[in-house]
Amino acid sequence: MSNIAGRFQLVNEEDLNTCVNCGLCLPHCPTYRVTGEDIFSPRGRINLIRSVKHGDLELTKDVVTALDTCIQCMGCEPACPSGVKYHEIISPVKAELHTRWNLRDATLRCGLYVVTHMRTLRFFTSAISVAQKLKVFPQKLPVPKLNFRQPHFNIDAESSSKREVLLYTGCVMDAWYRNVHLDTIALLEALGYSVQVSGDEYGCCGALHEHAGFAQVAEKIQSKIPRPTNSSMMVVNSAGCSASLKKTLAENRVVLDINELLHLHIEDLQKILVRQNETVLVQEPCHLRHVQGISQEVKELLEISFTVTQLEDDGLCCGAGGSFSFSQPVMATAVRQRKIDEIDRVIDSISPHSVHYLASANPGCSSFLSGCGFDVEIAHPVSLLAQSLRPRISGGGQ
Amino acid sequence: MSGVVHTNTAELFLVGQDASNMMGDPAGVCYPTSTAEVQEAVRWARAKGMTFIARGAGTGLAGGAIPTAGSLVICLTKMNQIRSIDVARRSAWVEPGVLNADLSRRTSRHGLHFAPDPSSQQSCTIGGNVANNSGGPHCLSEGVTSAHILALEVVLPSGEVCILDAENSLFDLRGAFVGSEGMFGIATAIEVRLVQNPPHVSTMVVGFASVHEGAMAVSAIIAHGIIPSALEMMDAPITRAVEEYVHAGFPLDAAAMLIVEIDGLEHSVSHGSLEVKDIVHRFGATSFRVAKSSAERALIWKGRKTAFGAIARIQPNYYLHDTVVPRKKLAEVLSQVSIIAAQEQLQVMNVFHAGDGNLHPILMFDKRVDGVMDRVHRAGSEIVRVSLEAGGVLSGEHGIGLEKRDFMRWMFTENDLLFQQKLRSAFDPEGISNPHKVLPRGSGCADMSSIPPGSWV
Hints:
Chain A has 398 residues and is an alpha/beta fold.
């Protein structure tokens, strides 16, 4: 363990010094919220990292658990008045802690291998869909209902629009949520865009790997993402991936999250979307709200067609956290329960059965929340907007 | 019980700290979830001959939650349920670990809130508010925590449970318990008074060319008979630091800035705002802005309430001081504070509750610099001295804790301290509940030991 502690030296001293121990981060940390224990808070973790780095504290099992249970939702960053760059502190530490081998870790590595191999991923997707049909696939697992075959892309090839955009299709997003891609294309085409799909050539963005602490693997994946020059804008409809790709491709191309891009066209959307007599509750993915600062945009977009209700939990994480729900199931489930309680509380305060959809712009959150037997349908905001397109314009997604 | 007392070094290291610069050395920490478990923890500590200390979110700045060596930390953060809300009576029974801001958020749909709003309100607990008799910007018109506590369920240091309220006990001991900094026992349930959300609010941001003019305007507003719901001042350095982070549109060219908030019925708000505008202009206001939306107002308050954190952008450590001076002496004491800081070669910023004369000079430093702690220590004592000489008091809202303990004699006579000690002994004859705080060494036989290692005040 001591050689790992030595590598805590990678954490920048000035980043650690920015934390003044005020504690304003505490309520914004999902793991502190569910435990009430300092050791599971951002302030506590920073203190532990600093002390291990300085040799004042040994890297004991308790310290490792405290650091392993950080979801990296980054809810603490926008809450911090001192501007502590928490991701700069926790990321190198997470990467260094990932040197253990156990069954759970090995399974995680297999899973992360599969998402970078699209043919294997599609094979497993079809296999799971069969298992789901035969009712032999455990319902508790955070996997949505899958299709044996994915619907085909139906691109308007005739489009000669000068507004070109590349839709990043990704790994799990494409294998499990192809419908969201079709809905994205329908909306963008209705707005006059000519849409290209990135396809399997782009594959996984490496966000899951980086998040899980496999920094080197992530770097390798990210280096393989094509970087054409003079390229069109890239749009991403998975919040975790858009956050990651913005960073990876910062010097190569404009990357926008779909909610960001659609919000630029909010006035046009108001003309082409119809009102629905339904209520949507918004669940804000951490990598959209805390990392990219996109929050009210989703609400304003959905308000074009729906009555929108928000949770009153400052965008607290749902516990999914990439592969976190797999590697730390106990903590993840406790955090999810808090989110579910909050959702139930808000629904009850309006009136039961009055909320029709839970909108979530990240596949990780959607699947994790779908694994707990909700009676409200979980949908991507883009799909909700696409189903509100005026019929004469609606083309794709059929 | 011993099974749920955590003793690992990492956890003890963390619960040995709060938001001050001090460090304690506890022997164990537990997280009770009910009154019965708190009783059990207290009895367990007593049986082991240990002292104990209640802990909330650890956001205190005076070291009140710093455990003395070998004590049991009873952390109440898992007791975080709002047990009941009585809308008709405008009250709620809450557990001590409920966060201040959560309580107001939960009661907002009834049009009610808990009035004390310390700057740390998003993180701090109601239990901590009771212990420190916390204030906040809006306590100018509503009064501090003691004005909002209707009843308390307390686990006494003997392990017994008692109710302190106005109706069912012979003496109303709420006033004694609120602000006792954890030395009289542990509150395990608190009945709070809730106040109505104001129907209309006007928040004004006023710039001045000098701190003196701003301070004079503060005195004039109160002297005129207006009681704003909040009246806050920030000097130029802190305004600049905060503006960089919140972008609330604060006047960067002003030497001092006031936030004046008036609430109530529409007519009285508009009338009061006009009067404030008139007064501040008479005292040379260089800018005057009224928040146009609740979002704009929220941003102004975010800037004010997170001001101290913005300091990390300038220096890695700070000492956030807390004294009170008479309003008419504000300008004079503020200039003395800046002289003191200059003498000790420290940067100082001021952000404070001007309406009730509660100063918060913030001394900024880098503790890795040799000898800096001595200078900070000296400047801190000098600020206390000039505040007391101006007719002020030791602390407005942070409490005495360890930080101001040894200044108590500057303000109180031996006789005063003796009676405080006797009151303490009535609740805690053995001196086992958060010992060595508030009362200076020698003022009672139970409090003879020294400040924990690592502390510097």
